[in-house]
Amino acid sequence: MIRLLSVASEVYPLVKTGGLADVAGALPAALAGEGVATTTLIPGYPAVLDAAGDGERLHSYVDLMGGPATLVRAQAAGLDLFVLDAPHLFERPGNPYLGPDGRDWEDNALRFGAFACAAADLGSGRVAGLEYDVLQLHDWQAGLAAAYLHYDPPVRRPGVVATIHNLAFQGVFPAWLLGPLGLPAEAFALDGIEYHDQISFLKAALIFADRITTVSPTYATEIMGEAGGMGLHGLLAGRGGVVSGILNGIDTAVWNPATDPALAARFDASDLAARAANKAALQREFGLDGDPAAFLIGSVGRLTEQKGMDLLPPLMPDLVARGAQFAMLGSGDAGLEAAFDALADAHSGAVGVRIGYDEALAHLIEGGCDAFLMPSRFEPCGLTQMYALRYGAVPIVARVGGLADTVIDASPYALAQCVATGFQFAAGSAASLHAALTRAMAMFANDPAAWSRLQRNGMATDVSWGSAAREYAALFDVIRPKG
């Protein structure tokens, strides 16, 4: 049995802002079938402490980055947890990373420095005699743990995996924080955590981890090039021998159209006609005209340039004129939120926009839309296109990262071989996006049999965690301490 400490700043269903939470929440159960016992370390946000209840208090810190803290062992939502209860750092409402003004908390370096310090203590056996074979550090918030283990090495060092969910977020902070973070002066070097005269938590993980994983094979290649490397491509290319892409899966119990309570009608691939009730419910929910023949495009996610959502507003009037409808759920850049609200006002009955996030509504969108749109400029993996495949919503995606790895374009060859599952287009190109949408609309209107094959092919795609769990288990086995 491999003992894994998963270090994640968010875990579904306890706290979620994005796909990291879904991965951290679903992967432990999949790994259990591969002989990996996972305990997850998570910050003690109010919602997490409420869910954890009265756990076992294992270890106390008199002063951890400015105040007392306690490590609590608990179980919640089927997960084995360590919760870092540090009220001075985490007892705050709302988003885990942002204050009420929408800006990063000013002490995020200390908050996640403390979190990483606790991870290193747990991984090194310094807490209650606990030992782990492998630490999996998810994104920058956990990254500094690799530096703590390097500069204060334990007798038995666990293997360390750095998992990149999005390279764009690197945890970069001023150099003067080196002392408050408890790191030696020698750490501030090119072969340490220094990054353009600042400190980078993510670089710490990439420098000192035994293995680096990303969440799709294509993204693993992209980040080693200048265009996708976000300034770290040289480091990653230099460590290319330990970089691999392991495609995420999804929780197929949570995302199952045959049992999903959020749907108006449950269905499977043998009963696609039942989706019509979900489409009608989705149209009502978004104030759209209840035309069953309308081509209903769904979207769930952040309204940002990275997600390519700025490409869509100029195209929407033409698409609406051709018979398209839009149901959009998300939030992000204020300018884009305003632009989509304006489109909804201008095209009442054809465009519906909900600013914010609603988990149940996200399920209904996947179960009721005809096509699901993801125009990302880059996308490490993406999960919503996998939900779409599972729910018979045909994905229309940019040809990047995990989107390229999970959706097979409806080219003439793929259609002839009966393997196509969706539509791809060139990332960042409004013209290519428009062409893909036009192709999809034409097939939907003129060739319902081909459209149905796309749906069934998508629903037959294995989007579970099985393959990823096997790959992770094999990697963990290679780097864990022997003897």
Account of the protein in words:
There is one protein chain. This protein is of the alpha/beta class and 483 residues long. The chain has two domains: 2-249 and 466-479, Glycogen Phosphorylase B (Rossmann fold), CATH 3.40.50; 272-460, Rossmann fold (3-Layer(aba) Sandwich). It has 18 helices and 18 strands. The chain has helices at residues 19-32, 46-52, 87-90, 108-123, 139-151, 201-208, 217-222, 233-238, 275-285, 316-321, 334-346, 359-368, 384-390, 401-406, 412-416, 430-446, 448-460, 466-479, and strands at 2-7, 36-43, 56-61, 69-76, 79-85, 134-138, 159-164, 172-174, 194-195, 198-200, 211-214, 243-245, 295-303, 324-332, 351-355, 371-374, 394-398, 423-425. The strands form three sheets. The protein has a nine-stranded mixed β-sheet with strand order 3-4-5-2-1-6-7-11-12, with helices on both faces. Helix 4 packs across helix 5, helix 5 (139-151) crosses helix 6 (201-208) and helix 9 (275-285) packs across helix 12 (359-368). The chain starts with a strand and ends with a helix. The mean pLDDT is 96. This is Glycogen synthase. GO terms for molecular function: alpha-1,4-glucan glucosyltransferase (ADP-glucose donor) activity; alpha-1,4-glucan glucosyltransferase (UDP-glucose donor) activity.
SSE blueprint and pairings:
Blueprint: E1 2-7, H1 19-32, E2 36-43, H2 46-52, E3 56-61, E4 69-76, E5 79-85, H3 87-90, H4 108-123, E6 134-138, H5 139-151, E7 159-164, E8 172-174, E9 194-195, E10 198-200, H6 201-208, E11 211-214, H7 217-222, H8 233-238, E12 243-245, H9 275-285, E13 295-303, H10 316-321, E14 324-332, H11 334-346, E15 351-355, H12 359-368, E16 371-374, H13 384-390, E17 394-398, H14 401-406, H15 412-416, E18 423-425, H16 430-446, H17 448-460, H18 466-479
Parallel strand pairs: 1-2, 1-6, 2-5, 6-7, 7-11, 11-12, 13-14, 13-16, 14-15, 16-17, 17-18
Antiparallel strand pairs: 3-4, 4-5, 8-10, 9-10
Helix pairs in contact: 4-5, 5-6, 9-12
